[in-house]
Specification:
Helix content of chain A: under 10%
Distance between the termini of chain B: 41 Å
Number of helices of chain B: 0
Oligomer: heterodimer
Number of helices of chain A: 0
Helix content of chain B: under 10%
Structural class of chain A: mainly beta
Order of helices and strands of chain B: EEEEEEEEEEE
Radius of gyration of chain A: 13 Å
Shape of chain B: globular
Number of strands of chain A: 11
Largest interface: A-B, 27 and 23 residues
Radius of gyration of chain B: 13 Å
Largest sheet of chain A: 7 strands, mixed
Structural class of chain B: mainly beta
Order of helices and strands of chain A: EEEEEEEEEEE
Strand content of chain A: over 45%
Chain lengths: 114, 108
């Protein structure tokens, strides 16, 4: 059973703080993704990674960075949090070459920036 | 550029009624389309993919390249179908783009 674990379910941070969101998957998946989920806007891709140390920008990378030092872990970093980054953040993983289109999602991290 | 459009944010039907959730896409390559579902307090999960041409939980979706649509249909809605539904498109880079989602409510 695929498990994608996001370390923090709920976070409250102040404007300007540095925020780390961690995601770990246990299925040896090559691809990992970070999305933010907002009502009326759906899921928007922030960054994805198809291999260790590889990253690609999604549709809304501004204000975010990512790190993938190990295959199982994909971190999302907000260098200086702002109130418009208050959102639900979803991590997902999938197979690489054999990708069937199925993403496995974590439970989400709800971030509030005050 | 790729784009997935779900024109209805909210959809409400009565139990036993047919339901259709609309999805339109724009993509210059050969599209692969999917439907994902998120039930209350559960993770987002894959419902079905167009390439499989399968029926899952009574839902079907046909890719219409002429109309660039991938509408999700079920002939008889059930209360347990109430959820958030997202249409998604996979591009050549193997990343997935999602629509804005449609919240389906099936009333008793």
């Amino acid at each position: 059973d695929v498990k994608v674990t996001q370390s923090s379910r709920y976070l409250v941070k102040r404007t300007g703080e540095k925020v780390f969101l961690e995601c770990v998957q246990d299925m040896d998946h090559e691809n990992m993704f970070w999305y933010r989920q907002d009502p009326g806007l759906g899921l928007r891709l922030i960054y994805f990674s198809y291999d260790v140390k590889m990253k690609e920008k999604g549709d809304i990378p501004e204000g975010y960075s990512v790190s993938r030092e190990k295959k199982e872990r994909f971190s999302l970093i907000l260098e200086s949090a702002s109130t418009n980054q208050t959102s639900m953040y979803l991590c997902a993983s999938s197979l690489g070459v054999s990708f069937t289109g199925e993403l496995f999602f974590g439970e989400g991290s709800r971030l509030t920036v005050l | 550029a790729q784009r997935v459009t779900q024109p209805e944010k909210l959809l409400s039907v009565f139990k036993g009624a047919p339901v259709e959730l609309k999805c339109n896409y724009s993509y210059s390559g050969s599209p692969e389309l999917f439907w994902y579902v998120q039930y209350s307090r559960q993770r987002l999960q894959l419902l079905l993919r167009h390439i499989s041409r399968e029926s899952i939980k009574g839902f079907t979706a046909d890719l219409n390249k002429g109309e660039t649509s991938f509408h999700l249909k079920k002939p008889f809605a059930q209360e347990e179908d109430s959820a958030m539904y997202y249409c998604a498109l996979r591009n050549n880079n193997n990343d997935m783009r999602f629509g804005a989602g449609t919240r389906l409510t099936v009333k008793p």
